[in-house]
Amino acid sequence: MKLPIIGLLVIFMLSWGNNALAQNPKQSKKYKVKKEKKRDPYTPVYHDKDSDGDGVPDGRDECIHTPKGEPVTPFGCPFDTDFDGVYDYEDLCKTEKGPKDNKGCPWGDRDQDGIKDNEDLCPDVFGVAKFKGCPDSDGDGIQDKDDKCPKEPGIEKYQGCPPPFIDTDKDGIDDYHDVCVKVPGVKSNKGCPEIKKVDQDAVSMAFKNLLFETNKDVIVESSFASLDALAKMLRNNPKYNLYLEGHTDSEGNDEANMDLSKRRSASVKKYLVAKGIKPERITTDGFGETRPVDSNDTENGRRNNRRVEMTIIQQ
Fold it and tell me: CB neighbours (10 Å) of residue 255?
């Protein structure tokens, strides 16, 4: 009989405890709070506020100022299809990467001069890299806006115009283009006295076959045979001296071009000296891009401007 009495007592106590709890609201609230405090600490709690109305609560919205109605990712940011850092709603070229400065589109080249519009100071006029996309129509190294004779090659001293015609030796060749200013000569030898055809042919062949490694002063091996023939001709004519002028196209830095033109003419001299020509018989100079013989706007023109001219001067 003891066991049933104890059982009834336990049931009564449990029933009384639950009723007491149910009838004491403060105790119930305390109980619930304690229960909430036992929540898993690793479970994030999000606020329900959604400032931009994109359906993503501010607590996990990484872009809380997205324009209303704009589709967003689970993190609340607008889509960026081409991953260029410009959201699709601001991007005029959604499938092509481009800078924000150009509304998400890549920079173009309106004048097709190879210089992107954002770096081109004259984006609507075909120009050259030296002047950041602005033109130098006559290829004399002076851009058109500073050139008083933009259609005719000139020099800086005369603001882009050719120097006045002065012919000291009266040979019909102006002093600016005359290597032998005080001795009458012929145009084919740059104002110096004419030399025998066979000797001129040796000079012409050496000039035509002279090649250098790209952007270097190293002579290409295919040029050696013609230079050897030139050296032989000079040895056979001890009264001949040689004047070498280095030139480049307008691509690249002005100072670097000037330096390269001088180094290339010096390389030719070094080669000829190694072949037995006395160094005092050879004079070298370099003019960089300042004396073009053709337009720098085409590859063929630039090739013609990259040269080392050779002139025989008789003692």
Answer: 9
pTM comes to 0.54
Task: Kindly report the backbone phi and psi dihedral angles of residue 125, in degrees, each rounded to the nearest multiple of 5, phi listed first.
Answer: -130, 130
CATH code for the part of the protein at 195-314: 3.30.1330.60
Domain ranges of the chain: 45-106, 110-164, 195-314
Which segments within 211-268 are labelled E, that is strand?
240-247
C-alpha distance from residue 168 to each of 9, 123, 190 (Å): 138, 45, 14
- Furthest-apart CA pair in the chain: how many Å? 151
Residue pair 229/198 in contact by the 8 Å Cβ criterion: no
Q: What are the DSSP E strand ranges found in the chain?
A: 240-247, 282-286, 307-314
Task: Tell me the pLDDT tens digit for each residue of 76-128.
Answer: 999 999 999 999 999 999 998 989 888 889 988 999 888 999 999 999 999 98
Which tokens in the block code for residue 7? 């059982």
- How far apart CA 167 and CA 185 sit, in angstroms, is 11
CA 150 to chain centroid: 26
Give how far Cα 231 sits from Cα of 117, 242, 271, 313, 315, Å. Answer: 50, 10, 9, 15, 17
The whole-angstrom separation of Cα 257 and Cα 13 is 104
